[in-house]
Amino acid sequence: MAFIQKLYALERKIKDEPPDKRYQARQQHAKAIIDKLQQWLDKSSLYVPPKTAMGKALGYLHKQWPRLIGYLDDGEYPIDNNRAENAIRPFCDWA
After folding, report:
1. Most buried pick, 6, 65, 67, 76, via CB within 10 A?
2. Residue 19 placed within a domain
3. Residue of 29, 26, 31, 38 lying closest to 64 (CA atoms)
4. Residue 78 CB coordination number (10 Å)
């Protein structure tokens, strides 16, 4: 969680910057955090049983890795899709 919190802290700092500045900040700061997260993921995956809650979370992170790091490639990409999910939530039937 600490890695993700650092990424979101950076995004809060650069949210009002133009896309080129966000891209530069992500390359300079977020990429290093992502690299450390990947090292942790690779190491942890060797020792955590895959059927445990943590093992399932690590497996999910591994499968979603390309989507996680995609936002690094463009300063216009958001770090997540929360705005889109919140926008469609009223139209979803959860019953």
Report:
1. 6
2. no
3. 38
4. 13
Expressed in percent and rounded to 5, the helix, strand and coil fractions of the chain are: 75, 0, 25
Please tell me the distance from the alpha carbon of residue 57 to that of residue 35, in angstroms, as a whole number.
18
Domain count within the chain: 1
In whole angstroms, give the CA distance from residue 15 to residue 27. 15
Task: Give the rounded distance of the alpha carbon of 80 from its chain centre.
Answer: 7
Output the pTM of the full model. 0.78
Inside any domain, residue 88: no
**CA dihedral in degrees (86, 90, 92, 95; nearest 10)?**
120
C-alpha–C-alpha distance, residues 59 and 81, integer Å: 20
Helix (H, G, I), strand (E, B) or coil at 76: coil
Tens digits of residue pLDDT in 57-89: 999 999 999 988 999 999 988 887 766 666 766
